[in-house]
Amino acid sequence: MGRYAADMGKREPTDRRKVYVRIADELRADIAAGRHQVGEPFPSIATLRERFGVAGATIERALTVLREEGLIMSRQGSPSVVIARPGDEEAGDAPHEPSQEFTLIWNQLQEIREHLRQQNLRLDELEERTKDL
Fold it and tell me: HTH gntR-type domain: from which residue to which, for each copy (predicted)?
């Protein structure tokens, strides 16, 4: 059981903030401390679920907070990426739109990843067909 799931049965003074808010705060602090660098992939939902011991929906809500603050960017089928640190000029309380240059590079990276995935599938097929030769 993760530390956030375990909080429910304690008699000590409790943090009354919602769990996803506490997780978002901790992840924001991780970004601020440089544990997750701008431009690098953010940990997966599965990794964060394991770290915090909570449901995926709770992690999703925490990530939504970070997206709305302009700290991370997510795209369907791809890992979230850190795009700003707390306190950076570009990060703020309003939803953040990445620069055109970042979006262009991000899209190119996704195309490259797809090409590599297709090449790996072809190599696997070729290896399967030639393994008995």
Answer: 17-85
Length of the chain: 133
What's the count of helices (H) and strands (E) in the chain, helices before strands?
Answer: 5, 2
Confidence band, pLDDT 50/70/90 cuts, at residue 52:
very high
For 66-98, write each residue's pLDDT tens digit. 999 999 998 888 889 999 988 775 444 444 566
Are 92 and 104 found together in one domain?
A: no
Question: Domain limits at 108?
Answer: 99-133
Q: Which of 72, 76, 58, 73 is nearest to 28 (CA)?
A: 72
Same domain, 27 and 91: yes
Single-letter residue type at 1: M
Instruction: Mark 4-25 as b/e (b = at least 16 C-beta within 10 Å).
Output: beeeeeeeeeeeeeebbebbbe
pTM: 0.59
| Res 131 pLDDT > 90 | no
